[in-house]
Amino acid sequence: xxxxxxxxxxxxxxxxxSLALAGPAAxxxxxxxxxxxxxxxxxxxxxxxxxxxxxxxxGDDLGQSFVVENKPGAGSNIGAELVARAKPDGYTLxxxxxxxxxxxxxxxxxxxxxxxxxxxxALVIKVPNILVVNPSLPxxxxxxxxxxxxxxxxxxxxxxxxxxxxxHMAGELFKLRAGVDIPHIPYKGSAPALTDLIGxxxxxxxxxxxxxxxHVQAGKLRALAVTTAERSATAPELPTMxxxxxxxxDVSSWFGLIAPKGTPPDVIARINASVQKALxxxxxxQRFKDLGAVTxxxxxxxxxxxxxxxxxxxATVVKASGAKVE
Length: 326
Prior knowledge:
By secondary structure, this protein is α/β, with parallel strands linked by helices. Helix content is 44%, strand content 18%.
């Protein structure tokens, strides 16, 4: 039997002790430096707006800056991959959206798995999508839009915040159900897509309500319908797509926080507790409500189960639509 010097044994025991205490100790001192919150879309879109609201609340509560970093591209996959490969210490978080659960099926060669390679923290908000058109388009409802598209083939295109987003999928579902063919123009986020929609470079879009609604209120866009099963409290006058004649047309978006797989559970719990504290504040709830969003309350385990269910749900939609991105 091989014997080790007492000094070596002592070093090993100290290392093991430090590992055993790493979780609780990390949580007790977390955060002791700025935390970055990666967003897979450009600034100005709903993911970015939601991330900045919750990042400020986390920073105020936990005493360190939570800095939002925009890493747009590839339908948010660039940002997600960056976080999947980051050190799992709680100092790199990802503002995940429904997009990532769609991408799991839509993209055939992803370098990460949204379920297996991340630790869920908390769902933050859910929002309806809204069908908006450029005001120059002579349509006031979905029925008129479909008739116009069929009468003017090859004259319209629809924008999205990127391939694989719920905005993209809503557009593909609309094409499938309405029997129309409209070219899809993907952007690196809602903000640049909305800019071109307002400028009539594209003519319609299914956008998240928080980013599109201010432009509707300003008269720069015309809203035709919401994509959820029920009407939105923010715009109760707008019919749903189902009311407009499209059964089972129920598409919504959601946004939450996740971390690289292996992030200490105590750190995850600390961030979750801070998120729940923020979402319980009336002023935060009102800010999200004004944007057409509804706050959520979940444990990390509940959010993880939710993400897994979303991957399965969207896999069915993606396959039925025939949409794919290499």
